[in-house]
Amino acid sequence: MRIGLVGVGRIGAFHAATLKNLPAVKQVVVTDVDASRAELVAKDLGLEFAADVDQLLRSDLDGFVITAATSAHADLIAAGVAAGVPTFCEKPVAPDLADTQRVVSLVEASDVPVHIGFQRRFDVGYRAAREQVRSGALGFIHHIRANTNDAFPPPAGYIPTSGGFFRDCTVHDFDIIRFVTGREVVSVYATGANRGESFFGEYGDVDAAAALLTLDDNTFVSVSGTRYNAAGHDVRMEVLGSLGSVAIGLDEHTALTSVEPGVTFPGGDPHATFMDRFQPAYVAELTAFTEVVAGTREVPCTVRDALQAFRIADACELSRHENRVVSLEEIGR
């Protein structure tokens, strides 16, 4: 099949290289707002180049992958739907809730499949935990602990368009909590602080945050994260049940050091970036998209799934600013 990709920044170039190596993909065509950058990536990876999105969508595509800036996602999804091309878009669907709702309405009124990129759904650890939870092997779940700790902060220029810590970073935790448990969040209490570079605070953002979520079955979920974890990129989850408990991301690459005498675990090198941590999941995710394109698989992460995760992130932002518990009923559906 022939896949078009728009946006060849760090994750875009990474996805383009992944797509090129998938058995189902015959050719990848790339474009970018910076045409010269797209042309260079195409040359380096042996791909085709399109001068702009219009030319890309007219080049007989079977599938359309969006890895452009967040501000462009909504319009690009709309363009893919209008062209009738199965579309994959990195999260988020849009920078704000209103535009996200608009895209959900647009997509759900069409018959064009749109797959949103929450790659943790394809990580073997999270999928194994989901099976344990759904099968009842862990009994009833009473607590979940999830964290996303970046090894180093993004550049200052990224923050104004990121949407803030909860919408940009812990939104992955919010989505995977729904995926693993099959439950919905009913309320949140969140807080955050700017402990590092001052540019976070200058844009009204934080670089460390925590939230307590209550699910619709009274499971309690603690979510934490930071932009400063020089020990390594550390993404984990613990699911604690009445009959058993499991951990995701607890392996030789975990960015922790035990101070207990005689303990050498973990002994491997910590992950440096999210692409390192989730490289197999990204391959599985894009393989799934080729199956969506081929019509052999239902969309594994819908625009409505993305909306639900965004609503939780919005609730956390509101809670942080107003220092109170926020019900998800307060956040538009």
Strand order of the largest sheet: 12-11-7-10-9-8-13
Discrete helix count? 12
Fraction in helix:
25-40%
The CATH architecture designation of the largest domain is: 2-Layer Sandwich
Major beta-sheet overview = 7 strands, mixed
Radius of gyration over C-alpha positions, nearest whole angstrom: 20 Å
| CATH homolog superfamily of the largest domain | Dihydrodipicolinate Reductase, domain 2
Shape: globular
Domain Gfo/Idh/MocA-like oxidoreductase N-terminal: 1-118
Pfam family, one: GFO_IDH_MocA
Organism: Kribbella sancticallisti
Keywords: Oxidoreductase
SSE layout and pairing:
Blueprint: E1 2-6, H1 10-20, E2 27-31, H2 35-45, E3 48-49, H3 53-57, E4 63-66, H4 73-82, E5 87-90, H5 97-108, E6 114-117, H6 124-135, E7 141-149, H7 165-168, H8 171-181, E8 185-193, H9 199-202, E9 208-215, E10 220-226, E11 234-241, E12 245-248, H10 274-277, H11 279-294, H12 303-322, E13 326-327
Parallel strand pairs: 1-2, 1-4, 2-3, 4-5, 5-6, 7-10
Antiparallel strand pairs: 7-11, 8-9, 8-13, 9-10, 11-12
